[in-house]
User: What shape does this take?
Amino acid sequence: MTDKLTPTQIAWRAAQDIADGAYVNLGIGFPEMVARFQPPGREAIFHTENGILGFGEAPPAGQEDWDLINAGKKAVTLKPGTAFFHHADSFAMVRGGHLDVAILGAYEVAENGDLANWSTGPKGVPAVGGAMDLVHGAKRVAVITEHVTKDGKPKLVKACSLPLTGVACVTRVYTSLAVIDIEGGRFLLREKLPSLTVAALQALTGSELHLTGPVADLIVPEL
Amino acid sequence: MTDKLTPTQIAWRAAQDIADGAYVNLGIGFPEMVARFQPPGREAIFHTENGILGFGEAPPAGQEDWDLINAGKKAVTLKPGTAFFHHADSFAMVRGGHLDVAILGAYEVAENGDLANWSTGPKGVPAVGGAMDLVHGAKRVAVITEHVTKDGKPKLVKACSLPLTGVACVTRVYTSLAVIDIEGGRFLLREKLPSLTVAALQALTGSELHLTGPVADLIVPEL
Amino acid sequence: MDKTLPSLAAAVAGIEDGMTVMIGGFGGSGAPIELIHALIDRFIATGHPKDLTVVNNNAGNGHVGLAALIEQGMVRRLICSFPRSADPVVFTERYLAGQIELELVPQGTLAERIRAGGAGIPAFYTPTSFGTDLAAGKPVEVFEGRPYVRERWLKADYALVKAHLGDRLGNLTYRMAARNFNPLMCMAARVTIAQVSRIVEPGGIDPESVITPGIFVQGVVAVPDPAQEEDLNRAKAVYPKVQA
Amino acid sequence: MDKTLPSLAAAVAGIEDGMTVMIGGFGGSGAPIELIHALIDRFIATGHPKDLTVVNNNAGNGHVGLAALIEQGMVRRLICSFPRSADPVVFTERYLAGQIELELVPQGTLAERIRAGGAGIPAFYTPTSFGTDLAAGKPVEVFEGRPYVRERWLKADYALVKAHLGDRLGNLTYRMAARNFNPLMCMAARVTIAQVSRIVEPGGIDPESVITPGIFVQGVVAVPDPAQEEDLNRAKAVYPKVQA
Assistant: This one.
């Protein structure tokens, strides 16, 4: 019995919602893990901002070609049907609404779908990459995240306190505790860990969780 | 002794001003002839709106490949170093200021450089093609034209009466009688047929011809 | 994932009355003649689709391809840059009779508007057409002392394009100057159907040489020996053939 | 026409103090390390060029390439989307000390602004960054009910890019994802210098496979076995090497 999902398990859950043949962009870091868990019989096609569509998994260590990398600068591989293109064409795919899904990390997600994931404030070096393009481009923008911060503060909030990446862009959040949709400016609870009451989940969430139907058990394999 | 240049001779004259290595777009029809008269030792690179840079001359009749045509839908040939690209890239070359010269035909050219070459008025079917892009894109826009219309009316005028292709865009006009620059909103006579007096040329021109220096003889070979 | 389609008829089955259809090609080069003719076949059999808005650089030549589509009365409105050709009689007669609307767009602006549609850019500024009748009613803005005209994106319900090689993922190459508007239209349509001279296995196109990545293509149909509009017109072809 | 240049030193000789220089690459892939190092050599020898504005997706990694250029103090201002890397210490220290200006641009907007510069589009609208700090002060317009931010073109005096094959006419190909920003920067600079792994005869690149047509390139210099930034950083390389 886990009391929360691991990042790998969150990635697994997010992967279950990706349809066969979907064009998918996975954010740098944690979201990249989603690619490992495509359900049998389904094949998504992965896009990376730096100009590759339909790349394959990481090569064995020592066999990297550093001209064949993803947006996180990690080595990837070719697959039959891979295509290369320049950055303007790559973001035409993003901004033009051609991606089916983008899965990103988050510092905060607000109940209206606002996302904050690029800046923790005025200190340090700001860096945005392709996130602001992705959130207004992909047909569906989902977030995978711990349900609360390391300090135990809610990451699902009424309104973001950190600088926004995009306005009203996120429609589903996969957390370490639950699956939550965003519709009509509200958090709709869809799935939660069976070990957790709705009240307990609400206590860890920064705005009201609405129940518009039965809440399914969030069941994920050991990974 | 000719009393005016043939179109072929006008094209020859225009070709003498194209530098070695220049990127050149030639308008449909009469201007296409300019390509035939590159001076020895000079090699211009020709661009066509429909996506070829560095194409070669027309193939022999019967050997056309109708996927290898210019903007006038005439067959051309490959040369070593030819490149293909799509229409947006082609007009990035045009609009982005990458062409050295565009040479176009004209119905009328005004002394401020306005060009009318796409519409003879509200009757008939209007057609513009790439002319409006070329006149605001190429570093130098030149016109080759008869000095007067078939009815004997001036084509070099104070202000265009026909719908404009572009505003203040033409800087040199090669006519059947003269070579005229446009600078500071004035026609500057640079060359004229030796057989013609300035007064006679002025009588065939719709606005004042200015002389800011010696007028050279416009001497063109028999062609 | 397999985007290949069993027939030309299946390829054009989803095009409905009133839709905007981008048709690739510059004159005859890159024109998807067989897809257009399949659309005409459907119209003759069913009366649909009609009232189409067609986006193409030209307005057809002779009595095949786009000209034949117009001749059937299927096209209500044409967006193009150059409605002239060696034999433009079909368009010209209908236009002068007020039976077809024309939106004339400078060629580079047409290309960029289509690309913008595909790239999620709703509007952009261009120097092209400033001060001319074709800029009438459009916003003008001065940047760095020079005036520019604001132009809007163009999108379509369908794009019908002609490519050279294609794979089941929708990756495409083109043949020489038959590339022209085709890759842009692939980007700008909700559904792009490509006729290809040959279907290859994924990987059969060098990843460096893919011109249209498969994300922009929804259907691929094999037309192994495509007609060239220029050849059809030299042979004075008419589509559909008059039944004897 | 022969755009080939005899040396890296000759290739970067025209870059002057205060110029805007676009440098290709995404992280290390497609980064023209040898051209950057030649620019550093010139600076060490002559004190020029300095006060550069550099456009790149990133801000360098380790102590080679762009990071080394910054470390020399040659860069006054950086326009980039992601100034982080495995080892961003050079940029980070200078930035936090107020010694280098940063204009942060979303990656797709950066790419499109560069393309716009090359394509003669002074401004365009994008949904990207609407409602965020990065849209502060920028005009917003609503099209079809959705708000968009107006962005301006980016142009440069020079572009330094890394290509794979090149010919004397300036036609270029790239290698895999090392393509990235390079073809766009070729379009947007007054002078584009490409380092290529191999110079081929005109025609040695299939006309269908030319990614950057020669019109966008002013100089080509051969760098037969180019360094890969990632390899240099794994070897903890520093440029210029400290003299023992």
Chains A and B do not touch (no CB pair under 8 Å). Chain A has a mean pLDDT of 96. DSSP finds four helices and 14 strands in chain A.
